[in-house]
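Re: the request from the purification team.
They wanted to know what the chain is likely to look like in 3D before they choose a buffer screen. I agreed to run a prediction and write the result into the notebook, where they can find it.
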Amino acid sequence: MKIFLLIFFSIIFSSCQNDSKKLTGNTVSENRNVFENKKPELDLIKTKKKAEEALVFCKSKKMNTDFCILIDMSLHSGLSRFMIWDFKEQKNSNKYLVGHGCGSNSWSSDGSKDDPKFSNEDGSHLSALGKYQLGERGRSDWGIHVKYLMHGLEQTNNNALKRFIVFHSWELMSDDEVYPKGSPEGWGCPTISNNAMKDLDPVIQNSKKPLLMWIYNE
């Protein structure tokens, strides 16, 4: 009888241990999946630092010191990385999705949604980093048919006009974040949704001074 009880309890103990290992293993796996799929967030400290630099630049160039456009390309393209920064309130007054250049990837795909490349070279189909002054408003063949010329102010983006890089909307761009999917990629122009451009167009037109758009990846 004693032998039978020992065998019985040994089986029960072994079974509990195995169940415990399975439970622990599943918990670790589930926690790992939650961590890996956690939605990235905007770094507000970095954004505020960029905004401070932008304000100094705008003052030195006699540009608009009420607001500017900051585009943080270090963020996944399925997240709202296009920011209207209010200098007076020191905060984002609005955020939107923005597309970047596809490079050697397929046009309109999201192949480089979390690792975009950049170039100032004509024909690269890549976006260029640096500070831009938004220029003349014109007619676009895309979106709501509104575009703004982009005057590159640095060595990294001074070919923008030559490359026909302009700021415009695109019907393929979403109004809402699409993460973990990315935004469709074009040939280098920063593109936003049609509704976003409808919001921004009158604001840009009413700007009494040249407006800064700063595209960065750091």
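For the purification team: The chain has a mean pLDDT of 88.
Please add any questions underneath this entry.
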